[in-house]
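So, can you check this record?

>
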Amino acid sequence: QVQLVESGGGLVQPGGSLKLSCAASGFTFSTYIISWYRQTPGKERDLIARIFESGGETYYADSVKGRFTISRDDAKNTVYLQMNILKSDDTAVYYCHALGYGMVYWGKGTLVTVSS
């Protein structure tokens, strides 16, 4: 059974940091492209960061570039999203996404709230 389980969300003050984790199981994690998306009510789910197989290449949306870092530990079947200098606009539900061999998997999301 394929699972992507996000964790690490919560309430943080503006300017603060948070690290999200996504633990995967049920598929060959190391061969999949893993991404983080986020969504706010009434808006589309947006791609914010992506890491390719072997962790050699990454992509960031302009809105998070320089503040967020995506990484993966294939030995632990886990991907991380380190989020620094958080802003109120970063408040959203963050989703983990896996893509490979024509298959797409989603996690259920973790809520990040940036507020004072």
